[in-house]
Amino acid sequence: MVCAMTTQAQVPIPRTAVVPAAGMGTRFLPATKTVPKELLPVVDTPGIELVAAEAAEAGGQRLIIVTSEGKDGVVAHFVQDLILEGKLEARGKHVMLEKVRRAPGLLKVESVVQSEPLGLGHAVGCVEDKLDDDEDAIAVLLPDDLVLPTGVLETMSKVRAKRGGSVLCAIEVKPEEVSAYGVFDVEVVPDAANPNVLKVLGMVEKPKAEDAPSLYAAAGRYVLDRKIFDALRRVKKGVGGEIQLTDAIALLIEEGHPVHVVVHRGSRHDLGNPGGYLKAAVDFALERDDYGPELRRWLVERLGLSER
Ligand code: UTP
């Protein structure tokens, strides 16, 4: 008798992963006058390649980058450069060759242009026409946010498969940090096997610590039901005249659509501001065999610490 091996069923993430990258990156001026912030390297790899790799590893099949005029380099990063590859090959630079081949080989990349920076919600709304009729959800990854270790999108997709609707990602922050984030109002799901799955009742943008409904802050990963597009069309412009993704999610909650969060218990880096970007760069560099040991030695000396 031939016995079939039982493996735990994998729930695929939505086949389309969306990366909104049309923002102005004002916190990174003057660098972002000419260099899109999504291309700033974390050690040597642009942030957008790191999130594209996360989407590919989770089973995403195509990446739609929402870009803006003048940021063509973001999409170009995913196009094969045969001339560069030829030169590296001829010079025997095989490690570098592998590195430049990685981004174009990750997954199919398409782009859509957001003509004006009208907010994250508006950026997400720009991809609707690109979806096939049978796509009932999308994954959204903000390229500013590194959520580590990777894998949270798979958990979020599993939660959607079980509970329907949309699933967001949260990280637990300290009370003194909460006012910098979008914060979830949540309740426990009685039958949840995973204590990190919570039902979302609402969301508050950047609350004072004393008004925060929880310490669970939004991290830039979303599995959104296709209904989000209809909700985005119906929300009014919010803060700064922008269409906010959180307002559309709030509308879905109000109308009774299930929205849950998965609390991610690993680490998270915010590449959207110079301070967070530097921490990410140091964190990644310390892990590298080529730069880590010397960086550690220098940091110890620079900070006047003694090596243990
Ligand atoms: P942010 O507000 O963090 O990015 O948006 P930003 O607008 O580029 O940054 P600052 O505040 O000016 O420094 C989160 C994500 O949403 C995208 C951004 O590119 C970023 O990845 N976004 C934002 C858009 O694609 N379109 C927009 O209109 C706004």
From TrEMBL:
Q: Which GO terms describe its molecular function?
A: UTP:glucose-1-phosphate uridylyltransferase activity
Alphabetic keyword roster: Nucleotidyltransferase, Transferase
* Reactions catalysed according to its record: alpha-D-glucose 1-phosphate + UTP + H(+) = UDP-alpha-D-glucose + diphosphate
**Top-level taxon:** Bacteria
rRNA processing in keyword set? no
| InterPro entries with a match to the protein in the record | GalU_uridylyltTrfase_bac/arc (IPR005771), NTP_transferase_dom (IPR005835), Nucleotide-diphossugar_trans (IPR029044)
Q: Which GO terms describe its biological process?
A: UDP-alpha-D-glucose metabolic process
- Domain Nucleotidyl transferase positions: 17-283
Q: What is its EC number?
A: 2.7.7.9
Regarding protein family, the annotation reads: Belongs to the UDPGP type 2 family.
Q: What is this protein called?
A: UTP--glucose-1-phosphate uridylyltransferase
Q: Which organism is it from?
A: Mycolicibacterium sediminis
Q: Which lineage ranks, top first, belong to the organism behind this chain?
A: Bacteria, Bacillati, Actinomycetota, Actinomycetes, Mycobacteriales
